[in-house]
């Protein structure tokens, strides 16, 4: 169903800095005028497939595809044949014959790459073990709303630096020209290959990437403070050891006192109060998590529209 070079959004650096800015501007436009663009009129369909649990991603893609004039086909992998071992390549070719885009929440990044290779239509990463790029678009839209711009801001991400959110903040922050500081314990710092990619991007955008084991150094003077669960989906067996190890990285009022007094707090949700973030922080005046959750809809409508215009 596609012509020419189909674009995908599998990791944050699939958008250049200029393209990320374009998508974020479109997201703001679609937030102001939610029904102004109908790239999926027909309706054309979008497959939205989940190997893992989801609340926000599931609802925001279903709502967003409908807003764009399309028909969301939302499925759990367990009820599909790919869940019984049908090859991803075959599944991709079938989706590409029936739908205008594929959105997939899965485990391995390699599976997404295979889906993109064979689908012939845009494929969007709705969270993998390595990246959550749609979340970062929503987060940066939120930061723009509260801080006016992205370039030059100091962003601190504390907790599990080696998970999907840690990697996406490093890459997506460098793309936006931000100064990203990750505070994470040894063994849970972002993949050095991803940090190297982010540093190459930061050299063009004026941003920077700093990795430290010290949560206070990460947060000192920050404009934006972010955390995520210490136990990502698929890591449930490691919960006890992770909770013991990450204790010093909890975003508490004491840690927030080190940030800029006007700092905002983000969390992609779901949040575990008393673990990675204190209740008085996530439920307090610096928290923008509900704007952030809503912005999933607007950001994803923007990336879908942008990709469909190019496929
Ligand atoms: N933040 C996020 O992706 O939430 P869900 O897991 O509920 O989709
Ligand atoms: N790091 C979390 C993000 C959830 C949206 C996970 O992968 O479970």
UniProtKB/TrEMBL annotation:
Q: Which residues form the Aspartate/ornithine carbamoyltransferase carbamoyl-P binding domain?
A: 7-145
Top EC class per UniProt?
Answer: transferase
Q: In which pathway does it act?
A: Amino-acid biosynthesis; L-arginine biosynthesis; L-arginine from L-ornithine and carbamoyl phosphate: step 1/3
Quote the EC number.
2.1.3.3
What GO molecular function terms would the record report?
Answer: ornithine carbamoyltransferase activity
The entry marks the following residues as binding carbamoyl phosphate, namely 54-57, 81, 105, 132-135, 268-269, 296
Report the SUPFAM superfamilies cross-referenced here: Aspartate/ornithine carbamoyltransferase
Q: Which residues form the Aspartate/ornithine carbamoyltransferase Asp/Orn-binding domain?
A: 152-307
Q: Which reaction does it catalyse?
A: carbamoyl phosphate + L-ornithine = L-citrulline + phosphate + H(+)
Entry keywords, A to Z: Cytoplasm, Transferase
Q: Where is the protein situated, by its record's location annotation?
A: Cytoplasm
Which residues make up the binding site for L-ornithine?
164, 228, 232-233
User: Pfam family of this protein, just one?
Assistant: OTCace_N
Does the keyword Transferase feature in the UniProt annotation? yes
Q: Which family does it belong to?
A: Belongs to the aspartate/ornithine carbamoyltransferase superfamily. OTCase family.
**Entry's PANTHER family?**
ORNITHINE CARBAMOYLTRANSFERASE, MITOCHONDRIAL, ORNITHINE TRANSCARBAMYLASE, MITOCHONDRIAL
Q: What is this protein called?
A: Ornithine carbamoyltransferase
